[in-house]
Amino acid sequence: MERHGAxxxxxxxxxxxxxxxxxxxxxxWPDPDAGRDAWECRVLLRMVDxxxxxxxxxxxxxxxxxxxxxxxxxxxxxxxxxxRATERDSYLWGRDHKSDCGPETCGFVAVExxxxx
Length: 117
Prior knowledge:
3 helices
């Protein structure tokens, strides 16, 4: 899993702000008694080529950084809507990027056994 994380971090736009927010199904909210200690989150990411994609990520609640209180509520709602409405996800982006992926194009150096996406 960490190897996939390295692939993703390499392909994120390092100058962009990436957003995540808890968006679990009703049955998957954190419940330590049931062995669930992470939140399923929706993510809105900007990739190195500028494309915006969505995805899901399990995150420990204590690792969240709240949006600044200066961000208007309407903007927060808009971000959540965009993340849910974006049809292209990180898997599809990675699949389509795979043929162009390499140290010369995006800086990713695959290690043996590392998933390309």
